[in-house]
Amino acid sequence: MLPPMDHTTYTMDAVVQASDLDGECAATLLSLLSLTQNLASFHYGTGGLSIPHLQQKNMTWIIVKQRIEIAEYPLWLDRLSCATWAKPVRGLFCNRDFAFSYAPGGKNASVNAAIGLSDRRIDQPRSPFLRGTTCWLVADTNTGKPLRPDPAMFGTLPFRDEDSLPSDFPRFGLPEDFSPAVNTAHTEASLCPTVLDIDMNGHVNNLNYVRWILSFTPAGIFREKRVSRLDTYYVTPAKFGDALLCRTAVVQDGGPDGETGCIHSIARAGDGTEVFRARTLWLPASRMTRKLTID
Question: What CATH number is given to the structural domain containing 233?
């Protein structure tokens, strides 16, 4: 359990919308990651530190790495209490943590409860179902090079020392061969960013890398399991029109808890330069979400 939230923490209530759902009426990983991004931008915006604010000074935010752990995926119209806080700056790096829990009475027992035809709710602990930590750089928009943050730029933005997850991002290597010809559990797909994939910095939006690796995860895994842990490294930005290869290797399957582990890599097709690397751990869907029934 995290310490009580205080003035150092930015909180926002959210509702799981129909556009956030998978085929089982559960929030998707992408929708939860999008919520973390929105929460961070709102918090920084209150201090004049959002990307549009920084771009006026020829600066911007660039995500470097993140770790997300999910214990349960909420369902349609569940009400959430979402919290984020900035952690003290370490050299060039600015860390930000997240903790999402259910709002009081926010966990619906049925479809009827979700749409207001019943008031049945599920009692739940206030411990977070999602914990996350992210690491960011402030970069020069003209050169793309990282800048050492000036303490004055943060103004009155408060910092919080507590960890939602420890900020020691794990290292992991790549398999010797991603080729599906070597292992049929591996996948490889070509892709090319479109204008819809580009963010305010002129690069591929960080959520799209995650969308791509999920899109090309073996279908059997994706249908039967949910991501319980995600580690990502944003190596170098991809841009509009880049020819990319997205590769996934299944490196662990059939553990005692039914877990499956995958390593993902996205690289430029021309010279092999890696732009993104990730590791996912998947658990059976029955352990990661509940069924939304009609009473």
Answer: 3.10.129.10
- Region of residue 246 (left: phi > 0; alpha: psi -120 to 50; beta: else): beta
Q: What are phi and psi of 33, to 5 degrees?
A: -65, -40
d(C-alpha 106, C-alpha 28), whole Å: 18
Task: Report how far Cα 93 is from the mean position of its chain's Cα atoms.
Answer: 18
Domain that holds residue 249: 187-288
258-267 confidence digits (pLDDT tens): 999 999 999 9
CA 37 to each of CA 63, 107, 148, 195: distance values in angstroms, whole numbers, following the listed order: 10, 23, 22, 20
Condensed to tens digits (0 to 9), the pLDDT of residues 112-166 reads: 666 766 666 676 667 899 999 999 999 999 998 999 988 888 888 999 999 999 9
- State the first-to-last Cα distance of the chain, in angstroms, to the nearest integer: 33
CA distance 169 to 230: 11
In a domain, 25, yes or no: yes
Alpha carbon distance 122, 115 (integer Å): 15
**Quick check: 249 and 180 in contact, CB under 8 A?**
no
**Do 106 and 78 form a contact (C-beta atoms < 8 A)?**
yes
Q: Which residues contact 197 (CB under 8 A, 6 or more apart)?
A: 204, 205, 208, 240
Flag whether 98 is in a domain: yes
